[in-house]
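Feature request, filed as a ticket because there's no other form

It would be nice if the structure record came with a short human-readable summary line next to the tokens. Right now we just get the raw output. Example of a typical job, pasted below so the devs can see what we mean:
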Amino acid sequence: MTDRPQPATPNDKSVVEAYLSAQKESAAQDSGLGLIPAAPEGFRSGFVGIIGRPNVGKSTLMNQLIGQKIAIVSPVPQTTRNRLQGILTTDAAQMIFVDTPGIHKPHHKLGEVLVKNAQSAIGAVDVVLFVVDGMEIVGGGDKFIAELLINVKTPIILGVNKIDARTDLTPSHINAIDRGYQELAQEHGWELINFSAVTETGLPELQTRLTEKLELGPYYYPPELVTDQPERFIMGELIREQIILLTREELPHSVAVTIDRVQEDAKITRVLATIYIERDSQKGILIGKGGQMLKQIGSNAREQMQKLISGKVYLELFVKVQPKWRQSGLRLAELGYRVDK
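Raw output as currently delivered:
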């Protein structure tokens, strides 16, 4: 087994780096205690950071790779807010995917938090998967992220997603898109892989290439685990997903969700959640005429929760106005959005 670099001192690393270092140390301890099985000879493991502009398909990709929905997806950009870790364990490797918020120019305190957290994850993982939109010619946003990766020492793969959606593009347009990303990869010495997170075309090759770039290492998590996030977090995300899907432009990103109580009985799990918005006018949109919008959000989210826990769920939703919560560091912290410094 090859030696991994020694972790830096706490003063020299970010919160993300400290967390990942602690996770690697605890994995070795748990293995010694028999809590996690010993990995077979030649086994590879590590953390894979999935980065890219908003709405390039990062969350969809992670869900497909691990074979289960743990990250919310929608056609609305900047859906992902927290770094969500999905775990894929095969006979050859264990990959812990870190799905980061889309890197973009922030317009409020929440946006600053999201971008800082995404950037901090870049230097703290073992492999970086830079995902771009294969429907669009390489642009300023992609080049900005490429600049952030110049001094990154870890292996980087440039993943061109959405190749399944090119049916309406002309051959010359497709050639222009491909040529731009090929030049970007060659300029930085990155490997390039085309794939579709929706149809899974190219995903076996991507998985193979990621495995090859990982170092020899142990199981960091039990092989049957698919995420390190608690069910409460995922339940909150499932509610937020339905709000985004059903309200679209009316309530873009001014919504936060907290799970206030989860009570598990023999036959049903009761969940109480609060939806936070910024203005009184948004409350009417969220509740809808006769309460129909809130009922639809609750019904759809409940169905997803029942799939998550494989059991019946009773979901009760409350709506609360919290003015300018996206602009307040204190409110962001209260709602679970931490800044990694």
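Something like this underneath would help us a lot:
Residues 15-32 form the longest helix (18 residues).
Residues 1-16, 74-81 have pLDDT under 50 and may be disordered.
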